[in-house]
Specification:
This protein is mainly α. The protein has helices at about 5-15, 20-45, 50-55, 55-75, 80-85. The mean pLDDT is about 90.
């Protein structure tokens, strides 16, 4: 197993146990994935070079694949009962 996989497993276990830092790290990760998904969508709709024009369909699909789950994750993490569990 790589160090990244071990770190992910450790964070998930600590998230399930209710650790505040794990909640914040999931929030930051969801925001970063959302930003990447929005960047992909931006490049799909406003291409600036031939490569982006030829790969617009792929960028559109990648943007949706990254953006939609991160929005759902961010929304579910900010539901008041969930937020209270981690921030109290």
């Amino acid at each position: 197993m790589s160090l990244l996989a071990i770190a992910c497993i450790f964070t998930v276990v600590q998230f399930v146990r209710g650790r505040k830092w794990a909640w914040w790290s999931v929030q930051v990760l969801a925001a970063m994935i959302l930003a990447f998904g929005l960047l992909c969508l931006w490049c799909a709709f406003f291409p600036i070079n031939d490569f982006e024009r030829s790969e617009a369909a792929f960028l559109l699909m990648a943007g949706l694949i990254f953006a939609i789950p991160s929005v759902i994750t961010g929304t579910l993490l900010n539901v008041p009962p969930v937020r209270r569990r981690f921030l109290d």
